[in-house]
Design goal:
Layout (H helix, E strand, L loop, with lengths): L5 E3 L5 E2 L28 E2 L7 E3 L31 H12 L7 H4 L6 H6 L3
Antiparallel strand pairs: 1-4, 2-3
């Protein structure tokens, strides 16, 4: 039996945002924009084929926790500027590493309330 895991960014990513209007660079999200000029209007949406995807990564896992999923040095489309930092994703990876070969403990992970950013900031 062959099992696959995958991820696709869901939703529509507007085109025409950003300083150049071509969705390859951004930056305008920080400021109120003139909506009456048409200069910042969306020009469409990024086609589904260009959305970030993952299928059967070599690590055998996919983690999504509101952090930036792409490296803008490699991914040509602008998805935004404001994301959560990656500390939660790192914590999930650490927990999955810890649980390797212990699936019976995975239910406990769903009840984990540890604030990993604070724990790492104040560790001795």
């Amino acid at each position: 039996m062959c099992l696959n895991i995958g991820y696709v960014l869901c939703g529509e990513v507007p085109l025409g945002r950003g300083k150049t209007g071509d969705n390859t660079v951004g930056g305008d999200e920080w400021y109120p924009l003139c909506g009456w000029t048409g200069h910042h209007d969306y020009t469409g949406f990024l086609p589904h084929a260009h959305l970030p995807k993952a299928l059967d990564p070599t690590s055998g896992r996919i983690v999504s926790s509101n952090h930036r999923l792409v490296d803008y040095n490699d991914y040509p489309h602008w998805l935004g500027l404001i994301f959560k930092n990656s500390s939660r994703a790192r914590a999930i990876h650490e927990e999955l590493d810890r649980l390797e070969g212990k699936p019976h403990e995975s239910a406990v992970t769903h009840c984990n309330t540890l604030q990993h950013t604070a724990a790492h900031s104040y560790s001795a």
